[in-house]
Design goal:
Elements: H1 12-22, H2 24-37, E1 43-50, E2 55-61, H3 75-89, E3 95-100, H4 107-121, E4 126-131, E5 140-143, E6 149-154, E7 156-158, E8 161-163, E9 171-175, E10 193-195, H5 207-225, E11 236-239, H6 250-271, E12 279-283, E13 292-295, H7 306-313, E14 324-328, E15 335-336, E16 339-348, E17 351-360, E18 374-375, H8 397-422
Parallel strand pairs: 3-4, 3-9, 4-6, 9-10
Antiparallel strand pairs: 1-2, 1-16, 5-6, 7-8, 11-14, 12-13, 12-14, 15-16, 16-17, 17-18
Helix pairs in contact: 5-8
Length: about 425
């Protein structure tokens, strides 16, 4: 089921989708050339927003946690893509250790871990799940809503290798974004490959660096395809010295909000967009929809009340927010049963393996949807993202999903570039 846009099927986005459809062969050739130069992350998910006049990524996750939400019909795609990724990293791999987030009560996340383990197991790997939770000192089964049981086991370190009791893996796959830093037990693993690399974690990574890489990628792609890069690229700015509790950095924040809004207004005027522009202010590091606010005027970030400052001051793991990205807000005109929805595209290696709609019953089309009210049973895409159909309209399911896949892969490529640029001279892994 593809929710219909509430906008008329005319204008820039329809033109963009037509361009993608007409240039599908050139697009695949362009990506193929890019993957000769860059190595894709092991896996990745991209949050997109479809404004009816613009289709752009708003977040890229290198530790995706929603594999359970993908259409089961596309599991073979996941398995094949995972095979390709594993063979690149450890061709002789027999065992793989999966390390998830420290969520033992989030049933939806645990079902993601179970689905991910199933995908990896079907590639021919022995897969077991090790946990960083210090309180788990013995194998601990967790019952899942679908009747499965997930077994978490305490990690064991032996010199330069990490494993479990009776289990010595070739590689270690992190589904933990390391927001709080790299635990000692994961350091100096010189005999094993850690994927994604440790510097992909939020203790190092910054959204602004990702979108700077995306700006470069989108610009190159747009030039090759003859399109305006703004149609696929959200504008942004950064403030690097913020203390919301002490009201420090308000002027920096206000001036950057005003600058981004001014540039967006100019593009709206160019394309005849009648919507009111807005920006999203969010922590430059971190996930889970924490430390985020919608701003429509620079004056709104001056003199924030205590509740607003407290909300913005702390991110995941209780870490203080000192850096923020001011990102052009992209409206979403897609709805499911009257509720605002945004597509999320999933990739393994360089392949799109599916996606789903994140739905929120309590948020508007100019607000963050990764928040309370989000439906944890999003609709899986009903067809793949790699089979455009020239016999269908640009907004029909195969072609809309193809457009999602193109922009999702651009964000994936940007993540590859980002990781290359942020890699330490000598990786501690």
């Amino acid at each position: 089921m593809v929710p219909r846009l509430t906008t008329a099927l005319t204008g820039p986005l329809l033109d963009l989708e037509n361009t993608f459809l007409d240039r599908a062969t050139a697009i695949e050739q362009w990506f193929r050339a890019q993957w000769q130069e860059h190595t894709p992350p092991f896996y990745c998910s991209v949050d997109l927003r479809n404004a009816g006049f613009k289709l752009a990524p708003v977040d890229t996750n290198l530790f995706p946690g929603g594999f359970n939400n993908l259409n089961p019909a596309f599991l073979p795609l996941c398995v094949q893509a995972a095979m390709t990724a594993i063979e690149k990293i450890c061709p002789d791999a027999k065992n793989l250790l999966l390390i998830p987030e420290n969520h033992t009560r989030n049933q939806f996340y645990l079902m993601n871990v179970a689905r991910l383990a199933t995908i990896l197991n079907r590639t021919g790997l022995g897969v077991r799940i090790g946990t960083l939770i210090p309180e788990i000192t013995a194998p601990t089964p967790l019952d899942l809503p679908d009747g499965q049981t997930l077994l978490l086991e305490p990690l064991k370190r032996l010199d330069g290798r990490l494993g479990l009791e009776g289990f010595d893996p070739c590689a270690i796959l992190l589904n933990n974004d390391l927001s709080a830093g790299v635990p000692a037990i994961l350091r100096d693993l010189h005999e094993q490959t850690v994927i994604p690399p440790l510097h992909a974690g939020w203790h190092v990574r910054r959204k602004s660096r990702h979108f700077a890489a995306y700006d470069r990628v989108a610009g190159d792609f747009a030039q090759a395809m003859g399109i305006d890069p703004w149609l696929i690229n959200p504008d942004f700015a950064v403030c690097g010295r913020i203390n919301f509790q002490e009201r420090e950095g308000e002027e920096c924040l206000a001036s950057n909000v005003d600058a981004v809004l001014t540039r967006v207004r100019a593009k709206y005027a160019q394309y005849g967009v009648k919507e009111a522009p807005f920006v999203i202010v969010k922590a430059d590091a971190g996930t889970y929809g924490m430390g985020i606010m919608t701003v429509r005027d620079a004056a709104e970030v001056k003199g924030l009340n205590r509740k607003q400052r407290n909300k913005m001051a702390v991110g995941k793991e209780g870490l203080q927010v000192t850096e923020v990205i001011i990102q052009e807000g992209v409206h979403t005109h897609e709805t499911i049963e009257g509720n605002v929805a945004e597509p999320v595209v999933y990739m393994i290696d360089r392949y799109v393996v599916g996606g789903f709609y994140r739905v929120n019953t309590e948020r508007g089309r100019d607000e963050n949807l990764n928040a309370p009210g989000m439906r944890f049973e999003p609709l899986a895409f009903d067809c793949g993202c790699s089979m455009p159909d020239h016999n269908c309209a640009p907004d029909d399911a195969p072609n809309r999903f193809f457009a999602y896949g193109v922009v999702g892969r651009l964000a994936l490529l940007a993540a590859a570039v980002e990781l290359e640029l942020s890699a330490p001279t000598l990786e501690i892994a």
